[in-house]
Structure formats: C-alpha cells, structure tokens
User: Fold these one by one.
Assistant:
Number 1:
Amino acid sequence: MITKFTSDHEWVRLEGDVAIVGITSYAAEQLGDVVYVELPAIGKAVTQGGDMAVVESAKAASDVYAPISGEIVAVNDDLTGNPQLVNDGAEAQGWFCKIKPSNPADLDALMSAQEYQAFLEGKS
Amino acid sequence: MTQLRSTRGVSGGAADFETVSGSRGGLQATWLLFEYGAVDRSGVDLPAPKGRPDRLGGLARTAPIGVPGLSEPEAVRHYVRLSQRNTAIDLGVFPLGSCTMKHNPRLNERMARLDGFADIHPLQPVSTVQGALALMQELSRWLTSLTGMPAVALSPKAGAHGELCGMLAIRQALIARGEGETRRRVLVPSAAHGTNPATAAACGFIVDEVPGTEDGRVDVEAFKAKLGPDVAAVMLTNPNTCGLFERDVKAIADLIHEAGGYFYCDGANYNAIVGRVRPGDLGVDAMHINLHKTFSTPHGGGGPGAGPTVLSERLAPFAPVPYVVADGEGFKLVEHVEGQEFGRMVAFHGQMGMFVRALAYMMSHGADGLRQVAEDAVLNANYVLARLKDAFDAPFAKYGPCMHEALLSDKELRAHGLETVDLAKALIDEGFHPMTVYFPLVVHGAMLIEPTETESKTELDRFCDVMLALEARAEAGEVEFFKTSPRLAPVRRLDETRAARQPKLRWKAEEAAMKQAAE
Amino acid sequence: MRYLPLTQQDRAEMLARIGAASVDDLYTDVPAVARRTGLVDLPLHQGELQVERALKAMAAKNTPAGSTAFFVGAGAYRHHVPASVDHLIQRSEFLTTYTPYQPEIAQGTLQMLYEFQTQVALLTGMEVANASMWDGSTATAEAAMMATRVTKRGKVVLSGGLHPHYADVTKLICDANKIAVAACPAAIDGEAKVVDLIDSDTACVIVQTPNVFGTITDLAAIAEAAHAKGALLVAVFTECVSLGAVKSPGEMGADIVVGEGQSIGNALNFGGPYVGLFATREKFVRQMPGRLAGETVDADGKRGYVLTLSTREQHIRREKATSNICTNSGLCALAWSIHMTLLGEAGLRRLAVLNHERACDLADALGGVKGVEVLTPRFFNEFAIRLPKRADAVVETLAAKGVLAGVPFSRLAPGTGLDDVLLVAATETNTDDDVALYARELKKALA
C-alpha cells in the first residue's frame, strides 16, 4: 500500500482494486480550519486532473482534483457533519472518496512521499 | 431638576469588569428583537377595518406569522442601540481600498427626499414625470462628458450589475456580428475584483486569467499570447486593483480591438481620474461607474448602489431598455424596441434615488471641483504611501506613484509572527476602520489603503502615526497584544469557522425556548 | 469647495513629503494622449442654495403621487412609511458604513441583517433568507439560475401571470447561460398552466401570486406537480404586504420564494432603490446567491454576528460563484426591517386587511361604471379591469383630472392584445374620496 501525491496536494492510496483519495496534511494546514467539503456523487466518472471535490475554510475555497481517472465508488460521509476530520487527519480519517481506477498506470505519473516532500521544500 | 452635587474623579480601578446589565457605560446592551418584541405589540396605529367579506378566494392566511412588533419608543431605541455597534465614515477614517468611502453630503439626502423625486411611481404617465426624465438626461450628460463616451445605460442597480450590462452588450454585439458562438473567452487579470470573473461567467463566457507583472500591472506579453479569434473581451480595472494606472492601457485596447474583441473597463476606481482622464480616450468600449463610490451616494452598510454603464459608439446600439430621449419640448421614455435583442435587465428604470444624489454631488463640485477630487484623492494616497513605505513592505512603491490607494503587504509583519489581520484588528481599537485586507489576491497579506479626498491632512497624519506606532509594537515582538485585538470594540474577534461549520442564519422560536428551558 | 478639506498649504507640504513637484507628477503613468489639461465642458462648482434651487425646479415638474388620487401598482406600491423609519436609516452609523467586512465594528448592521433574514423567512414561510438582492426582478432571475444549479437541469418555465419585466430579466440571464425558457402566454388566472410545460429537463416553474393581474393562486397543486417531476417551485410576489393576508408560499410548498420588498419601508423613488427578498429551504442554502449573516461567538464566548458561507460568493469563488452580486440593498433592507418591526404581526395583518378592503371598495366602485369589467377573480390589493377603449388613452385623460388611474397592461407588454386592460392598485393611503373621484372621472372619460 503505497501512497502517491500530486503537485495539487492530493494523495491517493491503492487498497485492493480501489484507491482512497484525500488532500495532504500540508494542504489542510495551508487552508486552515476546514468548514465544508463538497464531495462528488457516487457513480460519477472523474478524470485525472479534473474537478472532483471542493474543500472550504471560512474565507477560502479550493478545488480538489482527481489524482487518477475512474469512478467514484464511495465518499466519506463523516466529513459532512464533521469537516474538522480533515484538519485532524488529512491523510487518515479525513479521506474524501474512493475511486475505482480506470487506468492503473495513472498512479505511475504521481510523486512518491519523498518526491512530494522534496517538492514542498522546493516551494518554500 | 438640577443635580446639586458636584463630582470630582478618583483615579484607579480597572475598566475590564463585567457589568450587571451587560451595557458598558454609554454602549447599551442589545437583544434580538425576537427576544423582547411581541406579535400583538405595534408602533403603528391603523384604523379598524370595516369587516367586509374578503375576496381572497379561500386563500386567507390562517397560520401565524410570528414576526414580533415593538412600540415606537422601543423600536427607536432598538435601532439606535444597534447603530452604536457600527463604525462609519461620519465617525472616522474608513480607508477601505477599492470601496471609496468618501463623505456623503447631506444635501444629496435632502434632494432625494423631495416629493417630486421620492413620491413618483415608475409607471405613472410619462407626462407626469418630465422632471425625472430631465434629471436622468442631465445625469447622462455629466457622465458621458466626464468619461468621453457617447452613451450611457442608467438602469444597472450596482457595480456588478453594470458589469453585467457591459458584458451583455458585448455579447449582443458579437451575436450581431455572427460571432456569438465562436467568441466565448474573456480575459481577466489575476488581480481583478471577484465580480469580474463572476460576471463573465454569469453571461456564459469562459474566464481566462491573465498574469500580472512584478510592478503590479497586466503582463502585456502574456495578454498578447492569449489573444485569438475566440476572445470576446478583456475586463480590465483601471486604475487597477493594486492602485496603479495601467501604463499600457492604450496598447491593450489596441490589441484587443485588432483581435476583434471589446475592452470592458471596471470603473470601480474612477475616483482617481475623474475630470483628469477620460476613459473614452483610452479605447474603452464599456465601463460601469459606481455612483456609490466616485459620486458620493452612501454605501448604507451594503447598498443600495448604482452602476450606470457608459458605452462606446460600437456598443451603444446594444444598450438595454429603458432609456430617455428628447422629444420636442419634453422627454420620452423608450421601454420597448422592436428587434432589439438586449431587452431589459431590471424592472423599471434604475436607481433614481441614487441619480438625484449623484447629480447633486456633481453639480456641487462642478467640472473644476471634480478634477480637484481626483487630484486630492491621489495626493492623499501618495502621502500615506510616502509616510508608510519604509516601515512596511510596499511592493510597488519603487516603480512610481500610486493612484488613489496605497498598497502594502504583510511581509514585515510576518517576520514578527503576525499578519495582516492582526494589524487590522489592532487598528479597530485605535478607532480606525481597517483598510481592505487580503485583496488583491496577487499580493500576500495585502493591505489596500484608500483614504479618499475627503480626509484632511490632520486625519491622515493621525492614521499614519498609528500605523507606524503599531508597526513598532510588532517590531518589539508584542505578538499577544495583536492576537488579542480588538479589546475595545463592542465584541472581540469572532469565530468565523464556527459560523460556517454550523450555520445559524436566523432566530428560531423553538431553539430559543429550548435554550431558555436549559437555563 | 465644501467637501474638500485640503488647503493649498497642505497640498504643498504633502507634495514635498512625497517628493513630487506638482500633482501632475503623480499622473505620469497616464499615456500622454489621454492627459487632459483643461476642464471638461460642464458647469463649475455651486453652493448648496444654487444646487437645491436647480433640483427643486426639476422635482417640481413631476406630479407626486401624494398630490393625486393614486392607483398605480404593477410592481411598486405607495404605502405610508412611519416617520421613525426614515429618521433611523439616516443615522450616520447605518447610512455611512460599508458592507460589514470587519464584524467587530459592524455588529449593528450584522444583527439587523440577521433579524431581517429571520423576518423574511417568517413572512414567506421559508427556512432561510439572505441579506437582500437588488430588487424583485433580479431576485427572480437569480432564483431561476439557482434552481438550475440545484437540479442540474437546463430549462425554466414562466407563468403567464409573471410580471413582464420580471420575465424579461429572467429570460435575459437564462439566454446568456443557454438555459431554455418556456413561457406561458399572458393570462389573468392561469398560473397552474405551468404544469403542462414541465418535462424531465425542467429545473423550476416560476409563478407569481398575487400575479401581475392581481390574481391570487393556490400553489399547493403546482408544487406537487413540479416536485413529482423533480422540478422546483419558485414563487414570486411584487407586493409583500399581501403576505399579511394570504397564505405564505412556504406553506403552499414553494422551494424558493423571491419578491419585491419596496412596499414595506421604502418610497416609490421612480423605480429604485428597492429591495429584493430571497428565501429558500435550508438544504439549498449553499446554492443561494447573496450575502448571509450568521450567529457565532466572540473570543470571550459572547454572542455576535458575521457574514458567513462566503465561499459561495464572487470575492472568493470568482467565476464559480453562485452569483456576481456584491453590493446589495443594505439600507433598503434596514428600512424594511424597521417598518416590519414597527408593524409587528398584528400591525401587518391589519395593514393587509385595510389594503384588501380598499381594493374591494375600488373594485365595487369601478365595476359599477358602465362598460367596465373587473377581470381578476381573487385579489389582494390589485386587480385588472377591461375598459371599452384603449387603457393608455383613458389613463392620460384621467391624469389630467388628478387621478393616476393605474398601469395599462400594454405598457408592460405591448403586442399581447390586451390593450384594453388596466392594472389598478389600492392601498391604505387611498381615501373614500379618492375612490369616488376615480369612479366619477372614469365614468366621464368613458361617456
């Protein structure tokens, strides 16, 4: 179970034939207190780099892009009542949704944890 | 009764104690009107109905409404108490960048309340409102003369509605050229007001962002690269949201025209150039004018505004109805034009109450005074910039003068563990309304200061002295002082996260009853 | 110049501090061709007395409603506004403040908006309301767009009783966004016909009650039919006093309620500024346009108010915002809220009854004039009459006699074949004498 990262600060982790997706801890911290997450509908087809969800703080809204292409098979309903989960554990209980990948090779184009760390360090 | 007891103060004691009543000296405690009003109490005396049978066809209201009333003395007190919790331009410097909080002359208020303007109906016979049409015509003459544009649509209700007017006129012009389907892209600089991309999207256009340069202007090379046969228009604010004049505005106008597109100018910052520069001389095709900014009509805590939109020769035929035309001795109101596709963007004829106020202001200042308005507004902003640019980071100061507003960033503050919001809240305790914060988005922790021409040098010096003193406290590392500001305002810093996570958007009787039971 | 505090000496000192020789040095970024040296060809500055004289002369060329027997409605209504309303809205702290971006020093405006939102929600029978729109017509167009976002559908159906201006504004915005519009032909009592035009792509039906002809409609069946096909019901009103006498749209199943609030607290003003009211169900709030005030607590745990759910709005979401609206109608909303507070439920209900009774008196009086037919079957304070000749000609004739008789329907919608239809409104401001004078002069005009 390897976690991969995008330059737009999403993470994706393949568990069996389903990928779990969320925003990175770095993104959650940049955003501040998350107040709302707009999740996609189950069954929706998403394409890598295309719109998938929206995450909001009191004063900002950020689009969250699909890290891989596929179909949404589950969403984290707990976020609706408790968006704080994203701040508490962006890369654990604050996951957004699960995607059934249509093209497993999509993952190859993404960054490893080390590469993402280096990417963040390069930014600052 | 005379109070036959003289007083003499005793110093000592602290001000931070809780009062029993919840009031703090002259600042009275407040409650929601729902917490003490009653549905059977009223501040209005009305005659008893005759009790005749109704003709409501069985649709008479039976359910209670639940809106409480107050007697007149209670109502007056309720709203005066609320008013004490606001700051206002009448109380002090309100340098909210991009908002042009200038003095609102009271002559304007008196004129707008004349029965001949306030007590006339938009649909009463045109023969009975000739003075109103004359006023609209006169306002149009002032606006077109000042801007050097041939036509103006008066009906837009606010700035964003004016943007909609201009962009829909552009859309109609494109349709008339047979390019309504092909020219779909609108170029919007990254520093633009949020209303610009929102308006373009509301007109069905696709928004394409143009980056800026290091000196706070549009990147003309990047702009050029984005031009193409699918471009409908550029929406450019000038003077721009960084408070700077777009030096290359003529080149941008020529380029967009050569590419077959139109030049929409956001006129929110027109106050800096009124009487000195005519947008018509810059190649503008459409520009809204916020009467509530440049022409002094009051902001009223969030409107009403008014956004008359001036149009070039090319766009004038695509203006919305209604409009006023001279008709022999008098005036006529054109409310329908056969075959004209734009149609109508609002019921009736626009913000007449604002037209009266704006014209009263224009006539008071005259051509000479309006030019002085722009010059003093620019002078005041540059003075503030000159006084603050060494203590704070002023990202564009080295590239030349600003226009009507001075832009700072929070770079210096961040070095001390503080940011823009902290300075803003500390300014509140000093009696100043903060500047515009975190806008434009292109500058980190932006602080946009627009003093306007109606501030005296004395007031500006007080404001700058306070800014410098606060900067010194930041420098001294007084982080807690800032983080706990404001302490002297009617309330402390408010929890905006909580408000957004558990939205509570109205009072509810059931909730209030539960709360009371719990207590 | 009385509005400019700087003296020549101030200007000189400030220029010296800036390091500029003259103010011209501050305008060097302006292209040379656009730098104007002379004055624009307009009159020079004038004193208060002179400006007042000139504007009073213009005002004197209008006929104020209060100087006539006045029966004009069709979207704007003449009501009595208590003296304290205008006094209070002219308090500096309300009149000369901005949108409450700094909540600690704007609690007055924010609490007022919170109360306004509550009052609007209660009156319309809805769960939530926003802090106001520009007017009823633009609120209607916004409601149509909101319904397309909620339902993700692309068609809007308009009733035949929707105010023609409201229909025009809604079509304009829908056209630009490639939203199909199906409009029922003008009909005095045909709101329910919208049901026939609902299909699987219909986002909403937009119906008005009382409609432009004054007809009141039971919305329950329309709501049911719309909901059965997955469409929303948008209910519109132009006369908010009617809500004191008639079942609320919320009670009848509306999903979005929009309307004009001018009647309460605001003068006629020749068409503006007015105040758009906008209410909906809680579950749709994130798709709602406009500002919202919400309750929260401050750092000491004390109750306070802020603007909230701002991520819907243009200054944050830009091209993805729910609307481009920024400045709304804050001060008109304040006037509305104060007037509503002065009335209270009992006062509003009585005011509504007085309006209705006056309209019934008028319908009896005009219906008694030979050749005049009252067309509206159920009404609140406004109804349509058919005249034996063109309505616009009759209106001109009566205006000369001191009676402003109403709005010819043809003025709102020319070419609909209803040139003989006149829209007539009565309010608590009309006296028995006004009604009698109208009937008498109408009789003469038709003789």
Number 2:
Amino acid sequence: MKKFLSIALALVLIVGCFAACGTKTEPAATDTGADTGAATTTAAIKIGGTGPLTGGAAIYGNAAKNGAELAVEEINALGGLQFELKYEDDAHDAEKAVNAYNALKDWGMQVSLGSVTSKPCEATSAETFADRIFAITPSASSTSVTDGKDNMFQMCFADPNQGSASAQYIFDKKMGTKVAVIYKNDDVYSMGIYNTFEAKATELGLEIVSATTFTEDSQNDFSVQLTEAKNAGADLIFLPIYYTPASLILKQAKDMGYAPKFFGVDGMDGILSLENFDTSLAEGVMLLTPFNADSTDAKTASFVSKFQEKYGEIPNQFAADAYDCVYAIYQACNNAGVTADMSASDICAKMIEQFTTMSFDGLTGTGMTWDATGAVSKTPKGMVIKDGAYVGLD
Amino acid sequence: MNRISKTTRSNSLTYAGVIAAFIILQIMTGTGSISSSLKGQLVPICAYVVMAISLNLTVGISGELSLGHAGFMSVGAFSGVVAAMSLQQAIPLAPLRLAVSMVVAGIFAGFAGVLVGIPVLRLKGDYLAIVTLAFGEIIKSIVNNLYVGVDGGGLHFAMLKNANSLGLEEGGKVIINGPMGISGITKISTFTAGFVLILFTLFIVFNLVKSRTGRAIMAIRDNRIAAESVGIGVTKYKLIAFVTSAVLAGMAGALFAMNYSTIVASKFDFNTSILILVFVVLGGLGNMWGSIIAATVLTILPEALRSFSDYRMLVYSIVLIIVMLATNNPLIKNFLGDIRNRLFKPKRNKKLEGGGTNE
C-alpha cells in the first residue's frame, strides 16, 4: 500500500511539473506583453522580435526594443490599426534566439521583427521562412540573413553595400590615397564590410597599405595596429567597427601623435554619446550612417525628444531602424488591408507583395524601396564630426 | 551477484525511462499538444544529454576533470556540417547523411581527444583540467580563422586569410567562413535521431563501464597506485575513457549544429563547457540517469522562466543553488533514499517489513 502510495504521489508530482511547463507560456505571455503599453488589446496585430536584452550586446537589443515600443505606442494612439509588441531576449546567441522565437510563436506572433544581431537573425530567419511568418529586421546586416528567403527583409544596409559605398565615397571625394584598415576579425559585421571594402578598393585602384585585425579578447590595446598603419604612411584609417573600440583607437592615435583622417561606418554612430569620452578626440571623424540624431528634420527631432523623455538617452541608429520597421509594417498593413484576425501566412503573402512594391519614408532615409532579395535601397549620408556634433558632409 | 543485478536493473530502467519519454513526446507532438517552445528544444536537449553522459564518463567514471568538453562538441559540429554539406549530392537521403556526418564528427573529435589525451593523461593531478580548458580556447581560435570551401574539385582549406583566398571554381561554395562560422545549414537533425543517439551513447557507456576495461578505469580512479601495482596500464585505460567521451561529444556536436541554420565557433566556449559540467555535477558524478535529468531540466528551465523577463537568469541561478543545497540535505537525502528503497528493492523490503503493512 505504502509503495503504491509513494509511486502515485511521485506521478502526481511529475504530471504537475509537466502541466506547469506546458501552460506557463500562455498567461506569462500576456504579462510581459503588457509592458508595451498596449493593454487595451482590441484585436491587435501581434509583432514579435528577439534581441540581446541582456549580455554584452544588450545596448543594441534594448535600443531596438525601445525604438519599436515607441513606434507601437504612437501608432496605437492614432486609433485605427492596433499593434501589440513583444520582445524576447536572445542574449546574442543563435540557439537562444530560436528558443525565443518559438516562445513568441506560442504567444501568437503574426509579424516578426527578426533579430537585432546578425547571427541570431540568420537562425530565426530560417524559422520564419519555414513557418511563413513575414519578418523585417531592424539591424541584422549580414547578407546570409536574407539569402534565399523571400519573406525576410532588412531595414539597415547590408554589410557589402556599406563596404563598397565607403570605398566609393573615399575614392570619389579623394579623401586619402593610402588607406589603412583596422577591423575585428571575429565579428560578422566588421568582416563583411572589410571584405567588400577591399574588393571595391582594389577595383577602384585605392591603395590599402595596411590591414590589421583585432578580436573580442584583444580590443583593449591598438598600439600595434596603429604603429603599423603609421609606418606604412597611411593618411586615412578606415574603421568598419563599432564605436567602443573606435573610441580607444582615436585616443591611442592622439597619444602617439598620429593624426590621419578617420572614416567609419554606421557602427561609429553613437560615439559622441559614449560615457567619459572626450568628444574633441572625434573631431574630424567621418562616417557613413543612415541616421543622425542631431538632424533638424521635424520627424527626427520629434522622435529624438520623445525617446529621450521616455528612456533618458539619445537614440542611436538601432532604435531608429526599429522605429522605421514598425512604421513600414504599419504602412504595408494599411495598404494591403491587413487585419488582426488574419493568419500569419496570409499576412506574409500580402506583406511580401507590399514591401517589394511600396516606397517608404522614415527616419533612416526617404524613398526607401526593397528588392525581391529583401535588401533595402537607401542612400547613406556622409557625416563629419565638427565641434562635438554630426554635420552633413556634402 | 546482487550488485551486478542491481546495476543491470538500474541500466534497463534508464533505457526504459528514455524510451518512455520519447514515446510520450512523440504522441504529444502527434496530437499537437506540445508548445512550439518545447518542441524547438527537443533536439538541443538530446544533444546536451549526450554531452552530459559523455562528460560523466570522463569526470564521474574516470575521475578526471575536463573543462574543455565543448571543444570536442565544436570539432564534431564543424566537421559534421562540412561532411553533411559536401555529401549533399552524394547522399540525398537526409537521415543517412546525418548518420554519416555524425560518424565523421565522431572520428574527428576522437582524433582531437587522442591528441590532447596522449601527452596529458600521463600527468597526475589537475593538469588535464588546465589543458582541456586551453584546448577549448584553441579550437575556438582555430575555427575562427579557418576557411573551408567546396567546389567540383573537392574541399579547399585556408587559414588566417579570407574566403577569397580559397580559390574556388565557379559555382563553388564557402562552408566555414572564419569568424562568420557556417551559414545556410540544411536542418536535418530530428528528435528521432537525437533519441537514437542517446540510446547509442547509453549503450556504449553502460557496456564500457560494465566491461573489464570499465572496471580497470574505475580501479584507477579509486586508487591509482593499487591499480598500477596489479599491472593496469594507467594511461591506456584513461585514454580509452577520454577518447570515447570525445567521440560521443563530437557526435552530439554534429546533431546540435544541424538543428540550426547557422553555427559559430564562439558558441562552444568556456561557458558551454562549464554548463555541461554543471549538468554532470548536479546529476551526480557517475550517475547517468542523473545526468539525463539534469541536462533536460536545466535546458528547459531558462525557457520556462521567460515570464520573469529580466530576472530570468537570476531566478535560474537561485534555482541551481537551491537544488544543490536540497540534494545535499540529509533529511531530503534520507527521504529520497527511502523512496528508492521502496521502489527498487521491493522484494527484500517485503521480507524485512512483512508486506509493508507496518511503518
């Protein structure tokens, strides 16, 4: 009897565990979904996205999440089409991104914002493709994200475009004759830009005199790379990297008394708002970026002030890209007459049709169009830092 | 006699448990009563279970601390995917291609195991831990700088350059692209494949432990000097356990990699090694059943805790600490031991207690 009782008790416990696992996702989803401010959900279209909300890349994930949240709030305040947004943490890891994506699928996601960073987005885009859920990523710029997937779109430039656009820009404006490149060789973003930059530079006859690398573990000292560039007589250093290591490069170059021109890409955006960074170091740094928080354009100014009010910081291009993503989805939904009761695959078919034909004006560019591969076409803006502010180059 | 029959019974219970779990989950998947979240985790769970069992062979049975188990997983993952991608045309049948690539993965990981093991297992003390730790980092660095492509002329390799230096023919495909890892993997791993791999792993490990070799390995763990004095070749037996463990980890790596469309070397870092070690320690050293449960629960747990959003990993670590404290608590230990006695030794108990009517 006792034995039977203990077995029965154990079974009840196990079943209880499983039941808890199974049902937990449903009520939990509405809990965290509520923090988007869309508590009054009168049949809202569910938009989900994954991004690194924790860990080393958290600033990008949180920026994108905040930008998207702001856009959803504005749209819901307009009345009409309603959105409900939910971001799940992927900690910049492909495995966790797929888990996060599946959690969103359980929640009932109808349109996806993909993932914020490239590698996780590659993993989730394969899932959205298989499940026929439309996805547009704010910032995953690798080409393998969209490769061979008809329902995956990008709001940011693809890496190759940035590399070749930068080489073209440097060549056209005759900014330098001897170019040095310092790039991060364990980073998809940096490698992707460097490879196309190199190819385009060779094609144009732009001389690369020094190409040096660093990794995640060795981004605390750049004296070797800078010395090599200096000895090679480089008069322009191309930095296809994010702003944190770039700020150190600027500082060390100044300490060495080496003053070439510096040219960055969209990852450089944000360097002026970096804490404890002497902005005079960035004087004269040029960069190609689609978004400029100091722009006097009415749309941008209103976005920046609202963002600052809500989150207490100046939005970077990740936030702007995510904000644009939500508005692009909004425009496409309105054009196609998408309603919240449609299935994800029906929405997907309509959205693909819209995105390949429509033109969209947002914070990160006007007259944006998408081709069938999912890559965006918009013109990068050349910026230069003058007196601690971004100023248009042209 | 009694001891042997006890291990046999516990082993067959482990097999039965795994098979039962598989059948239940298959039925749940069939009827659609399983969440996508759990469904998406089935293959990684299988891979982690195999990793935990194989590490348990090194840590629990052979008594050597290995901190680079993810390194073998990495070797297996990358060699397995390269094999699967280059055999895409030759073997159109996905399950067969998966099996072949797992074998290739096992061979490569086993080779890496021999390379690391030969010099290190001759040493005493904690050297293995330090060297395996370094090994994991070395593998990460190598794969980060490795470029592999395939075209009509076969495989091309390059180190430290970039994908353009591979010199691929027209229509060639880059497989491993340095720090960008592998993109565009065809997902051929299935839950069934994972289940078969777990059974295979259990079969290998249980039979190894039960054999003459296994007894020699445990003798070395318990008393090296005594084992040496009766003529057991310490290095040889340690190497057998270590390489077996590496081979199984490599196969798990291949299974894991082919469940995602992309894989990077930095995934298999020190943290992953430690995670697997946590599975083993939490499940109990030398206890395969415990490893299976621990790997499963600790893989599901972070996902089940998603409702805590930002505090998720905090809750996760608190749960880990509580589990550790609870399993070491004498009261709970006695209680669990009591249950186990009632479940697994009913006949003897009956004789002693007289039918179980008295308390």
